Amino acid sequence: MIVGVGASRVRDLFQQAEAAAPSIVFIDEIDAIGRSRGSGVFSGANDEREQTLNQILTEMDGFDASTGVIVLAATNRPDVLDPALLRPGRFDRRVTIQAPDKAGREQILRVHTRDIPLAPDVDLDALAATTVGMVGADLANLANEAALLGARRTHERVQMADFTDSLEEIELGAARKLTLTAADKRRTAYHEAGHALVGMLTPGADPVRKISIIPRTMSLGVTLSAPGSDRFNYDKQSLLARIKVATGGRAAEEVAFGDETTGAESDIRQATTLARDMVARFGMSEEIGFVSVLPRAGNGSALMPGVSEVSERTRQRIDDEIRRIVGEALSYAIKLLTGNRHRLDSLAEALVRAETLGESEAYAAAGIDRPVGAPTPDQAKSALVGST
Q: Which of 36, 115, 202, 226 has the least C-beta neighbours within 10 A?
């Protein structure tokens, strides 16, 4: 009853577009119907999706200079599109949309707050600086959450505190009503203090912005860190520093308590993923060299995995390199925290008392000067570095 419906709708669509010419046809998420033909295990000429794609290709192939129809499409997966879609005469031009920079984020915030009554203390320029990496949808959600929070607090106008508190809840999740035992609270404090202290003392690491042992979503605590400005390229030192910071929580547990807990699960996953990218994607391993050895996205499937592009010997060498990088980072963190045990104890005790420490409070508790020229907490986004 439904075979051919997609192709029929495509024909009707282009007939309407040509009748209304000049006109624009916009296809959102084109990868839903534009995947490479024959890539699935059970795909074939009678596959409904392929019939729809074939009809789109046929309609666009019939365009000429006198046809007043422009076809636009959007996708987050250009790597899986059928090559025929990208040939000249169909989609001639690709436009890559990156996340907005600080100036772009400020303009987007002005759009999403134009119907919201704002208090005089709201600084959209400073707010744009705190939202590194956010796109339009994220900023729209932030404006909406701030408006809702301001209403719950019975504010006549949305204040800057409403925005910063909403940003914290979006980034970290809502606080859970979970009562920790004194022992769990102290262990969590040492775990997060370990992340923070390694970040403070490691060259190339992003400055620590906030530390909290208030349970949120699935974590018991969180350490937040972020650069002072937008970054579009990372050197090897900064990537290794991130891995070292990720191992700081487990290192602190070993230094302070002599044993391990399950709290480092997300840290292990983060460190392993980053080390694998360094070795297999970025060519930052002398053992593997200047080659990309990660499998391409969409290559094979569970039922038909296809032929691996990497030999078994290379895969073993990749695993050995990942283990070496993460192991050396953990050893570094243990040695660093052992040599700065007094700073670790001081920072952990301050966390136990206050539960949440801002940037200046955290550096003061550790007895370390803030990085010269580092922005204030309101001028840099708090990005998740390690959680328990």
A: 115
